Amino acid sequence: MILKKKDKTIVRHSRRNSNSTIDLDRVDDGLFGVVLNVPVRRYAWALKSRHWIAMRKIGEVWYNLDSDLSDPRIFKDTEDVKRFLDFVTSHGGEVLLVMNKKE
Asked: Josephin domain: from which residue to which, for each copy (predicted)?
């Protein structure tokens, strides 16, 4: 897996835990980014599938790097990110935390 080669690990965030428990400000302390796996319907709602969305904090700004968007979207603040994560999980999405491996 490419993430192992880049010294990253994936931690699945349990739906039983609130997304507010994710420390989105600890980017320098291990959190590299967030990957979402969301349910989607395509082709006039006939085909159910799943879509991957990457999110990353660069500097002090969180970005939604969804490939379905024409450009990356900027979140206003950390609370805006948490609201988005709550929306995703309330609609059947999965939250995966991409962590830097600790030495």
From this structure: 1-103
